[in-house]
Amino acid sequence: MTAIPWQSLNQALFQRAQHLLDEHWITKDPQLAPVLPVVMERGVGQDWHKAGTFKHHLYGVARSLALWQQPHDVQLLGLLHSVYGNAFVDLVKFDARSERSRLEALVGVEVEHLVHLFCTMSRSQFINKVLERDFDDDGGMMLELNGPEPRTSVRLTPREVACFIIVSMADTIEQWFSWQEEIYSRSPNVDTSRKQSVHWAASLWPGPMRPPSRKICQLSQLGLALEHPGLKDQLPIPPVFNFCTEGVTKENDAAATSLYWSVIQLDQPLVDLDVVTAVLEQAVRLNPWVGEPQMVLAQVYLSAGRQDDAVRAAQSALQCFSAWGNAWDKRVQWDAWVSWTRILLQSAQEGTWPERLDKLNNLALRT
Predict the structure, then answer these.
(1) Is residue 268 classed as helix, strand or coil in its secondary structure?
(2) pTM value?
């Protein structure tokens, strides 16, 4: 059996993540904060969006980009990436026919250009071209805009390609879970033949809140595309997937999710810990890039009295959470996953895991 690929906790990255645990971090950012009142007055805090509200989504995307140390124009794109609407989401907060100058005055011509281009380009074609490595020699890309045939084509610069890859990664990890995977099956090549009246059970929101089965694979492939010579030096490389140098296969992604979810659903033997431990360890081997399986494994280790293993698992989970800035398992928010993992790490380091069930309710972070 192969060794478990634990990740070391990067303290600088963890400190950046701790700063972003403050829900008011964005209101203190000198570049992002001035934009918030204008965006909020458009009702984004009331709009439904996948696993939360549109506000949660926009803030979550911006949070990952801030964590990834992206330039402020890229962070602003993340905060505004759907405000003109797009082919995927009909949430138009600014009318592209009459309000571009309004957004230009707020964020500048260059950022507004990025936002408008990101909203109006064919996102499906863009993702497919990146996955197929269909770049120009310099890393640029010819791409169609949304609309009826014949469609207008534009050329993305290498920096725009790198920017849109990174924002697409942050956009996807913030929102994707099993409900979206069901109704948007085969994304980015969506299966449009499935009728709601036939597949009504899959459409019941939010569904079981299972993590997605294939998206981590797709995100790893988007990240690997940043190794193109024309792209790799355009922007800071996100710290996920070992700074986008490693990938996950579809098979391993799906299997890891299934193994993890079988434990969450208590579909494994419950009397002894050996089976659950083996199942979670295999899930981590197959997909070591998400924190939730490692976090659950840390608690299982603590229950078995394996403090040293619990320390390794909890530190590795914190590294994953700190690298993404968003949750893979969307049953609770990212900051909650981080908080519980820190409790587990503290308990493992101190050897203080409660023996009584009711004492779990008393746990508190002291550092």
Answers:
(1) coil
(2) 0.96
